[in-house]
Amino acid sequence: DTEVTQTPKHLVMGMTNKKSLKCEQHMGHRAMYWYKQKAKKPPELMFVYSYEKLSINESVPSRFSPECPNSSLLNLHLHALQPEDSALYLCASSQVGLLDTQYFGPGTRLTVL
Amino acid sequence: DQQVKQNSPSLSVQEGRISILNCDYTNSMFDYFLWYKKYPAEGPTFLISISSIKDKNEDGRFTVFLNKSAKHLSLHIVPSQPGDSAVYFCAASLGRDDKIIFGKGTRLHILP
Description:
The complex is a heterodimer. Helix content of chain A is 0%, strand content 57%. Chain A is mainly beta. Helices cover 0% and strands 54% of the residues of chain B.
């Protein structure tokens, strides 16, 4: 299984809502990532988890809260988002760290109204 | 300041010909480079990588060349196929625990 899955595929939420994005991989990878991608821009790294511990937080606002319940799962909790947070949110995983090949999920298309 | 630059936003190539995508970088400490391919509405797919100790890496139709003195790498696709039409991202890393920095991407159109 060389797949990273993400749910939901699409999400529309208001600025007062609380929602979560989910990511799952069963490749035995110990590093997992959240990226944000705006239209026609490259993916921007948000968070890196290594061995279920947050190792990199790229100065992301606190309205985004990552969680890694176990080595296969990665969540991104969303609260009080702004319309400018609308983007494609990509999850990725790699064997150990950032130097290893990253496998990306299909992404969640988020729209904040 | 952009550390990884892909100066051509788009490129059109005839099917069957060679596609050459270019990437320049500014940080001489980068030691690992990657190319990703992205179709619309999908996540980036890893294509090929190269370590700074090499100057060439080949995988099927894809070859990446690295010129460290020029801080330049290129991806060659030969022969180009219709399914190669996508956005190609060049990326670079400083080491195992450092982040990957992406270029802005080049949209490749393969013409019939």
